[in-house]
Fold:
Amino acid sequence: MIVRRQTRTIVLGGVPVGGHSPIAVQTMTNTDTRDVEATVAQIHGVEAAGCELIRVAVPDEKAAAALTAIRAAISIPLIADIHFDSRLAVAALEHGAQGIRINPGNLGGPDKLARVVAAAKQHGAPIRVGVNSGSIEKDLLKAHGYPRPDNPTALIESALRNVRLLEKQGFTEIKISIKSSDTLTTVSAYQALAKQTDYPLHLGVTEAGGLIAGTVKSSVALGILLYQGIGDTFRISLTRDPVEEVRVAFELLRSLKIRERGPELISCPTCGRTRIDLFSLAEAVERFVQTMTKPIKVAVMGCVVNGPGEAKEADIGVAGGNGVGIIFKKGKLYKKVKEEELLSVFLQELKLIEEGQ
Ligand code: SF4
Structure:
């Protein structure tokens, strides 16, 4: 059983993070933030997939100004990601950012940081101290070396140093991330940091890669940490559409039995017994269940010999026969349908379940 690490709670635009709050799923847009229409469209897509916090890059004044219109058109809290420029951080907050991600140490000194903290306080916006292996201060690298699995100290010291800069300004609405592109360094760094602070932690493996490599790396690192009760919000980083990041995030939470969203799809790998085009069928069913919200188990199996038995826990399933498909419920035969009609009949059954009939 997972025992969650106890942390303080911060509230980001109405969404609590930390404490006993559900572990929040977030992602980041990859549109040009100045392009309000494209950014809003992408945020609507990730909202539909269940995303609970959205971060956008704010590289210039125009991007900061666009936040007003973006925030007005979306329903989840908006976080601005800022590098180096304190004026942009203040502008983002003035234009409606409900949280910011900065590295307090690289904003240009205490006076500039003070202006950002004042604006964050005024707008009730928490700050994420986001440290990456690539952004660690030179003196810490010299003292502790580049972060590695057996010694991630530089990452932790950098994060805590930046946290102290905010605390000195009387600011404690903080969450922390210490990202590395190395799976094992990520694990050991967060494990060590969790022992040294009770601020909520944002987990992530940075520059994790494409769909397969990124999903595996993130799932290994974040799976270990979440299983140990570490982590209050997270992003799966993939070189893909952010909707995919959100889907992977919820699958990860589901596989750890932490949170469920929508149906769980079980499908067999197929073998020499398969007599129908199961890959196409499974793909079409997968697309459809992504639009559903009921937390049911759906099975797509290649044969009637083993399929229904293997998937007897499924609420509803389909198994391929010879020119026919068998629809089953809880492992029991429900309907026999010709292969040509199988997909449409099965989707209709799923639709009825979603509508509660
Ligand atoms: S369910 Fe049937 S087709 Fe699929 S892997 Fe098992 S035996 Fe093979």
Observations:
- The mean pLDDT is 94.
